[in-house]
Amino acid sequence: MEISTALLQPVIVLGLWSVVMMVVTISARVRYMSNLDIAPEEAKHTSDVAPKLPSNIRQIGDNYNHLHEQPTVFYAVAIAIALSGHGEGIQVQLAWAYVILRIIHSLIQSIYNNVMHRFIVFFISGILIGAMATIEILNWI
């Protein structure tokens, strides 16, 4: 059985996107905190400093956290499919669609944060993970 590496490419890209959003989050928070003279010690816990941050700064951090929620299911499903040797064709297309939607989700949440737009992207993303898992289960039959 051969590992399907094509399915691992979107996994790596989403991992890299998470790093990009980490840098954006840190940059935004540090810049804002330094402008307000908020000492790093005041930020031992996010909940301690969050009320002092404006919504546009908090939503960037929220998005970074969201990249560690639903995408972890995507990572597990995609890697399992790749290891099974079935990570070709439609599975790769679904994975790339998922990654593109998660990047769009990040941009929506970080730039203008329309909850309905975010929800639609989130919901479709979840459907894509479900489709990937369903196709893999059908491969077992």
Automatic annotation (TrEMBL):
EC number: 1.8.1.9
Enzyme class, first EC level, given as a word: oxidoreductase
Chain segments annotated as transmembrane: 6-26, 119-140
GO cellular component term of the entry, any: membrane
Matching InterPro entries: MAPEG-like_dom_sf, Membr-assoc_MAPEG
Subcellular location: Membrane
Keywords attached to this entry: Membrane, Oxidoreductase, Transmembrane, Transmembrane helix
A matching Pfam family: MAPEG
One Gene Ontology MF term: thioredoxin-disulfide reductase (NADPH) activity
Name the UniProt record assigns to this protein: Thioredoxin reductase protein
